[in-house]
C-alpha cells in the first residue's frame, strides 16, 4: 500500500498512478523486438508519429505556452516525421481526429506529461538505436536528448506542471488524461505491431 503525503507533487502522483500502464507499455514495446532491424524500429517510430500527431496542436496553445517552459521546443512531430523519411516509411494515415488545442487545461496537462516523460525512456532507446546505425542525424532524431540534458529539461517541465493551481476535480482529470494517453499509445502499438 502506498501512503500519500501532502508533500507529494502532482508529477509524483502521476508517475504512481500510471506506473502499471507505463510498465505494460514498456513491456509490449520491448517484446516487439524493436532493435532487431531498422524495419522493426520503424514500427516504434510509427507509434511515436501517431501519438505525437494526436497531441501536436497542443504545442500551439497560447494558454499552455504561458504555463510551460519552452513549449514549442518540446514539440517532436517534425523530428519523428524526418526519422520516418530516413527509415523509408510512408507517414501513417490518421485513424481518428487529433486532440484540439482548446482542450480543457487539466486534460492537456495529462497528455503532455506522458509525452514529456517518454523522453526519459527515450534516452535509453536512443543509446540502443546506435546498434542500428541510427542517431540524432539520421533515424533517431526524436530520441536525442535535449542539449540541456534530458533530466534537467524534464525537471523544468515538472516544476511548471506541479505549480499549476487546480481543483481536486481537475487533479483527477489530469490523472485520467494521462491514463487515456497511455492507453491510446498502447492502441497504436497494437496496430503497428499486429
Ligand atoms: C511511447 C512509449 C512510452 C511512453 C509514452 C512513456 C512514458 C513515460 C513517462 C510519462 C515517464 C515519466 C515517469 C515519471 O513521472 O518520472 C517515463 C519514464 C521512463 N520510461 Fe517510459 N515511456 C515509453 C516507452 C518506454 C520504453 C520502451 C522504455 C524502456 C525500455 C521506457 C523506460 C522509461 C524509463 C527508464 C523512465 C524513467 C523512470 C524514472 O525516472 O524513474 N519508456 N516514460
Note the topology.
Elements: H1 10-17, H2 19-31, H3 38-55, H4 62-67, H5 77-86, H6 105-129, H7 150-163, H8 168-192
Bound molecules: protoporphyrin IX containing FE.
Protoporphyrin IX containing FE is lined by residues 11, 14-15, 22, 25-26, 29-30, 113-114, 117-118, 120-121, 124-125, 185.
GO molecular function: heme oxygenase (decyclizing) activity
GO biological process, one term: heme oxidation
Pfam family, one: Heme_oxygenase
Structure notes:
The chain is an all-alpha fold and 194 residues long. The chain has a single domain, classed as Heme Oxygenase, Chain A, CATH 1.20.910.10. It is 61% helix and 0% strand. The chain has 8 helices and no strands. The protein has helices at residues 10-17, 19-31, 38-55, 62-67, 77-86, 105-129, 150-163, 168-192. It is globular. The chain starts with 9 loop residues before the first helix and ends with a helix. The mean pLDDT is 95. Protoporphyrin IX containing FE binds at residues 11, 14-15, 22, 25-26, 29-30, 113-114, 117-118, 120-121, 124-125, 185.
Task: Calculate Rg over CA atoms.
Answer: 16 Å
The rough form would be described as globular
Would you list the SSEs in sequence order as H and E? HHHHHHHH
Strand percentage:
under 5%
Give the ligands present: protoporphyrin IX containing FE
Helix content: 55-70%
Specify the CATH architecture. Answer: Up-down Bundle
Span between termini? 36 Å
Poorly predicted sequence stretches spanning 5 or more consecutive residues: none
- Please report the total strand number as a whole number: 0
Fourth-tier CATH superfamily name: Heme oxygenase-like
Amino acid at each position: 500500500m502506498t501512503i500519500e503525503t501532502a508533500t507529494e507533487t502532482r508529477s509524483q502522483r502521476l508517475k504512481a498512478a500510471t506506473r502499471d500502464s507505463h510498465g505494460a507499455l514498456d513491456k509490449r514495446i520491448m517484446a516487439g523486438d524493436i532493435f532487431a532491424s531498422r524495419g522493426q524500429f520503424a514500427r516504434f517510430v510509427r507509434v511515436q508519429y501517431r501519438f505525437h500527431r494526436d497531441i501536436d496542436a497542443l504545442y500551439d496553445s497560447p494558454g499552455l505556452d504561458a504555463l510551460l517552459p519552452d513549449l514549442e521546443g518540446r514539440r517532436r512531430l517534425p523530428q519523428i516525421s524526418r526519422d520516418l523519411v530516413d527509415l523509408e516509411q510512408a507517414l501513417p494515415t490518421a485513424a481518428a481526429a487529433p486532440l484540439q488545442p482548446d482542450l480543457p487545461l487539466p486534460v492537456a496537462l495529462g497528455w503532455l506529461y506522458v509525452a514529456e516523460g517518454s523522453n526519459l525512456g527515450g534516452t535509453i532507446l536512443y543509446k540502443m538505436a546506435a546498434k542500428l546505425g541510427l542517431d540524432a542525424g539520421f533515424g533517431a532524431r526524436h530520441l536525442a536528448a535535449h542539449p540541456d540534458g534530458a533530466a534537467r529539461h524534464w525537471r523544468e517541465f515538472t516544476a511548471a506542471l506541479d505549480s499549476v493551481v487546480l481543483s481536486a476535480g481537475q487533479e483527477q482529470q489530469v490523472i485520467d488524461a494521462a491514463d487515456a494517453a497511455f492507453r491510446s499509445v498502447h492502441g497504436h502499438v497494437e496496430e503497428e505491431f499486429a
